[in-house]
Amino acid sequence: MQKEFTPSLGLEVAYVGTKGTHLQLVENRNQPFVTNGFYASTRPYLTVPLTSPILPAQCQAPHPACPYGTINQINSVGNSNYNALWITGTKHLSHGLEFLASYTYSKSLDYNSLSTGETYFIQNVYNPRADYAPSEYDARHRFVLSGFYQLPFTRNRLVSGWQVATAVRQSAEPDRDDRTCARRLSHGAARLAERCDRNGQSKSVFQQPGAL
């Protein structure tokens, strides 16, 4: 939507929305089962079977069976959602002034922002939807201003032709500590950071799927 107030001054308002599907996720397919909101000690796959075609020699009798650890799988079951309101004001050069100002109010949600190097895997492979939360790069408010003003000095060559220019960029985004929230989850001796929910609040990634 555009509106012209004067021949040199205009305003544009736009809504932008994008939806991503089949995005890359990394899941531990041998994650311990979840019991009462905590990782248990039991995994789906305990040891390398003796019938495995790639059974290492050190796992064969008389040696003890080799235990399985983490089994990472990269799949394409992730989703993302971006919605934004863009407001742009433009003033073409007149009376020595020209500027471009833009404000964006947006929200980005995803399962895991792997494109930014985020290190958190899906924390509960049995309920990946619980990790649907603000993206690592989510910036709620963003303001950009650029422009210049021609100084009205024309007396001689020494003072004429001068311009004052500015470029401002300001954004407000959740602090990284807010993204991971303060509460931690127990995983044996390890501690895992917990993603916030879509409202920026701490939540359990072990909620039942039907409760989300």
Q: How much of the residues is beta strand, in percent?
A: over 45%
- Give the SSE order as H and E letters: EEEEEEEEEHEE
What is the general shape? Answer: elongated
Q: What low-confidence regions span 5 or more consecutive residues with pLDDT below 50?
A: 176-180, 182-193, 205-212
Structural class: mainly beta
The total count of strands amounts to 11
Cα-to-Cα separation, first versus last residue: 36 Å
Sheet with most strands: 7 strands, antiparallel
Treating each run of at least 4 consecutive H or I residues as one helix, how many helices? 1
Radius of gyration: 27 Å
Overview of the molecule:
With 212 residues, this protein is an all-beta fold. It has one domain. 2% of the residues lie in helices and 45% in strands. The chain contains one helix and eleven strands; from the N terminus they run βββββββββαββ. It has one helix at 176-180; strands at residues 2-6, 9-28, 34-35, 38-39, 72-94, 97-110, 133-134, 141-150, 163-172, 184-187, 190-193. Strands 1, 2, 5, 6, 7, 8 and 9 form a seven-stranded antiparallel beta sheet that branches. Strands 3-4 form a two-stranded antiparallel sheet. Strand 5 (72-94) and strand 6 (97-110) form a beta hairpin. The longest helix is centred in the C-terminal third of the chain and has 5 residues, at 176-180. It is elongated, with a radius of gyration of 27 Å. The chain starts with a strand and ends in a 19-residue tail after the last strand. The model is unreliable at 176-180, 182-193 and 205-212 (pLDDT under 50).
